[in-house]
Amino acid sequence: MIVKFSSSSLKDGRWYEYVVRFMLGGAATVFTGLIASGFGPAVGGLFLALPAVFCASATLIEQHEERHKRQAGLSGHRRGQQAAGLDAVGAALGSIGMPGFALVFAMMAQQSAPTAFALALLTWCVISVAAWWIWEQVRASLRSRRTKHFSAPSSKRADAVGTVRR
Questions:
Q1: Long-range contact list for 92-99, CB < 8 A, 24+ apart?
Q2: What is the per-residue pLDDT across 19-65, written as a single tens digit (0 to 9) for each?
Q3: pTM of the model
């Protein structure tokens, strides 16, 4: 699998879903600003790292997938959950790079903010893509182990789980 950008899902959305996303994102930004003004930018920055729009996005992804399956005459409930779960994995893997972004930006911002931002963004990309690659390798390894386990003869399979057939 190759990491790539696809705008095809934008056509699946309805106008009011984009309004909901925009409103929730704006509300999260205002909320973060209030926290930062009350408790300082360090505490406010912690809330910026919170994926505020994720809940709305996951819900919309689930609804889109269910709608597509219903149009095909199927339930789609499980497919909607899987699609939202996959989006959650992507968000989690992307968030792994955020500390690297923050560290590089904090170290370089005094010299040049644009350069610091560019290098921090590059750091985030490298760390997040590396996290995704590691996740894919672990999944492939687990999948191959599971396949080997279930394709073994029944007596070997029984031995693998600790029971002996005689």
A1: 93/128, 93/131, 93/132, 93/135, 94/128, 95/49, 95/51, 96/127, 96/128, 96/131, 97/123, 97/124, 97/125, 97/126, 97/127, 97/128, 97/131, 98/49, 98/124
A2: 877 787 788 778 888 888 998 887 777 676 655 667 767 777 787 78
A3: 0.57
